[in-house]
Amino acid sequence: MARSDLKALIERITRDVVRHYPKAVVLFGSAARYLKGRQTQAPEDIDLLYVGTMAPIGKKAYGIPMDLFFFETQEIVAIARSLRYLPKAAARAKMFFKDNWKGYVRADIAACLLLGDRYPEYGFLQMETEEAYRDYAVHKVLHGADWWHALQQYAQEHRGIRGLGIDKTLGQDRFSALCR
Question: What is the pLDDT at residue 7?
Fold first, then answer.
């Protein structure tokens, strides 16, 4: 699949999923790496992280398999809060044991997307396969960029347990502004 064809397909998918009023829609995986020129092989599927109150109902056929990782808003915000306040090793362990979907640890993927290139600081490891290096930090925000970038910024400012105590005292430990 040519990059221009993939871009057109992703625009079509984005138009379809934003009808369900998500907070954010994030493209990641091989399609994101392909569009950013970090891999030469065309993707075999499309991976989307969808944040909202309700997952899109029904599946359309797009001619390529699509995996939709649905997170309720408070769930992804809780992941960001863990990354911000828990000791890094504890945050990593919490993500790993949180849940498993199709052999993937969803929370790990979400954490890597939130941390961006900083995910190795937390001990997150990306998978290497014979075909490619799966770097989940590479992504493209398709919808809700302001909200997503604010959430990333919050997650990336590691404050630790001491910071949590200070922030609670000041009433700044919640990011309710991001949950609107």
Answer: 93
